[in-house]
Design brief:
Elements (H helix, E strand, L loop, with lengths): L2 E8 L6 H10 L3 E5 L3 H8 L10 H10 L3 E4 L8 E6 L12
Length: 98
């Protein structure tokens, strides 16, 4: 069953998708982050951002506790969402510049 409040973010465990999903979850949406990076998925589901994003760890833990956000590598989760957002990664250098 598709829920109008479900949003799926593909590429969701990266530098663009994770913060976007976190903000959407804080606004009341149920967010599924789909990514192939198992390490980032595990970090997010444990309440830790896999990279530095100021102020995000506390909010992530709160949204996980409220069951408003979770990360997975299972692409079939997209079927449960009304809205799908695809985030394309931007390559960065050692100084974290695009």
């Amino acid at each position: 069953v598709i829920d109008k409040n479900n949003i799926c973010v593909i590429g969701g465990a990266g530098h663009v998708g994770a913060p976007l999903g976190l903000v959407l979850s804080s606004k009341g949406y149920n967010v599924t982050l789909i990514d192939k990076n198992k390490k980032n998925i595990q970090s997010i589901n444990c309440g830790q951002m896999p990279f530095l994003e100021e102020g995000s760890s506390k909010l992530l833990k709160k949204m996980i506790y409220k069951k408003k956000i979770f990360a997975t590598e299972k692409l079939n989760e997209v079927k449960k969402s009304k809205y799908i957002i695809v985030c394309i990664g931007t390559p960065i250098n050692n100084q974290l510049n695009p």
